[in-house]
């Protein structure tokens, strides 16, 4: 039987992991079929300096809360660090020597380059402990039982992939996992998949605010609602995405934009392409713009069925 400690339990991802392991433990107690490799959960410890508010915290047995890691650390087999990178590094530096042999510690940061090397070093130093670097590629609003949830796994070494994978098989038997062999590759992928998307949509939202207060539209009350009423599918999807992204806290934006050199690199590259195309639009260069659309479509179609994407868009909107 394993005891799980969630540090940063008051945060949104901390709550997701709590719900996930509570559900997993319930399925085990009800005798539902799970892989024989799946860990058996006994106690769940929740730690955060903030007040931990869970609507279902008092319902299940063997759930304990505290503001102190030391209260639970010696009784924990598995530790999930749902904390910012700087805090994660402080926790590892302060508490690693207190862990009992065989304990597995998992960090879930969205930027791997600055933390992967540190975790790799302490993994070699404390060979009787296990450390994993993973990145949940879903938000705290994701259903814990969804088969679409994806976890990126960045191994600490190529020789340790199989042992790390076995641990993840036991913890997340239903989640899809993708092995990303280097932290640099992970950070490049995240820069495209998350950081760039957040940046584009933040700029989009800022533009809407400025337009809504412009001379032409400043007397139009509720312009953003009006735009939704007038819009077709394209704006509906775009506005839905940009508004949803704004539900995240400012520190996440800062971490995505500034926490990784890869993110800064990708955002700068996006800016250069934008400036180049915007200049051609200003110059009304029809030939350039037509070639841009044709060639971009051709290159994307070499890898993606864009007609299927179009159908999928309308299926989503019509549901």
- In CATH, the homologous superfamily of the largest domain goes by the name NAD(P)-binding Rossmann-like Domain
What is the number of helical segments per DSSP (H or I, 4+ residues)? 11
Provide the helix percentage. 40-55%
**Largest sheet, spatial ordering of strands:** 3-2-1-4-5-6-7-8
Q: Estimate nothing, just give the exact number of structural domains.
A: 2
Distance between the termini: 43 Å
CATH C-level label of the largest domain: Alpha Beta
CATH architecture of the largest domain: 3-Layer(aba) Sandwich
Class by SSE composition: alpha/beta
- Tell me the number of strands: 8
Strand content: 5-15%
Principal-axes geometry comes out as elongated
Sheet with the most strands?
A: 8 strands, mixed
The parts where pLDDT drops under 50 for at least 5 residues are none
**Succession of helices and strands:** EHEEEHEHEEHEHHHHHHH
Provide the gyration radius in Å: 23 Å
Overall pLDDT score: 90
How would you describe this structure to a colleague?
There is one protein chain. The chain is an alpha/beta fold. It folds into two domains: 2-181, NAD(P)-binding Rossmann-like Domain (Rossmann fold), CATH 3.40.50; 184-284. Helices cover 51% and strands 13% of the residues. The protein has eleven helices and eight strands. It has an eight-stranded mixed sheet with strand order 3-2-1-4-5-6-7-8, sandwiched between helices. β5, α3 and β6 (130-136) form a beta-alpha-beta unit. The chain is elongated and about 65 Å long.
